[in-house]
Design goal:
Blueprint: E1 13-16, E2 20-32, E3 35-44, E4 49-54, H1 58-61, E5 64-65, H2 69-79, H3 90-103, H4 106-116, H5 127-147, H6 152-163, H7 182-187
Antiparallel strand pairs: 1-2, 1-5, 2-3, 3-4
């Protein structure tokens, strides 16, 4: 079964599984030993990192173009579903979630977001579950942000709004009904 040769162009956004979304700056030729190798130079602005991937190894490394908006919408719809079975011990589930995050696959990222998201404002998460959730959400939001031309924070908020994830509770917030107006209470 022949594999499809991936085509990359300078200026294109790409997804590198373990790093997320980056911008392909250029294709350059480097001499290593006696061999000339074409390298894809990818900038991950958010991580302050530049990565060079040999063109021959791009497909094997999992480097891919951005998903289509349709595929991203399907992933978000999958994240709305019912959480998967949690019969495994946490260490194994966490390792599986880590593998899903590092796969770079929007559907696998959606599984992590789906399984770890808070269902109500009173739900609590362990520190490690929260970190995994935030990493998966950020990876989804990176791709969503580029596809919809918005910043990362707005993309994260939009995805959480679509999923119906409750916002954090502000314990210091005072409800307007609870405020006491000193003028009115003095008159009584």
């Amino acid at each position: 079964m022949p594999t499809k040769k991936l085509e990359f162009k300078s200026g294109q956004y790409v997804v590198y599984p373990t790093q997320g979304v980056g911008k392909l700056l250029r294709v350059e030729e480097q001499t290593i030993g006696d061999q000339k190798i074409k390298m894809l130079v990818i900038d991950f602005e958010r991580n302050h990192m530049t990565l060079r991937v040999p063109l021959e190894r791009a497909e094997i490394s999992g480097l891919r173009p951005l998903s289509s908006a349709k595929k991203m919408d399907e992933a978000i719809a999958a994240a709305k579903g019912k959480a998967g079975a949690k019969r495994m011990i946490w260490a194994r589930r966490a390792a599986q979630y880590e593998d899903n995050i590092n796969s770079g696959d929007p559907m696998k990222l959606a599984e992590v977001v789906r399984d770890l998201q808070r269902r109500s404002a009173t739900d609590t998460m362990t520190f490690s579950a929260r970190q995994l959730y935030l990493r998966a959400l950020e990876r989804m939001a990176q791709e969503f942000a580029v596809l919809h031309k918005m910043d990362l924070e707005a993309a994260s908020d939009k995805i959480e709004d679509i999923l119906g994830v409750p916002k954090e509770i502000d314990l210091n917030a005072v409800d307007e009904d609870d405020e006491i107006d000193t003028d009115e209470s003095d008159e009584e």
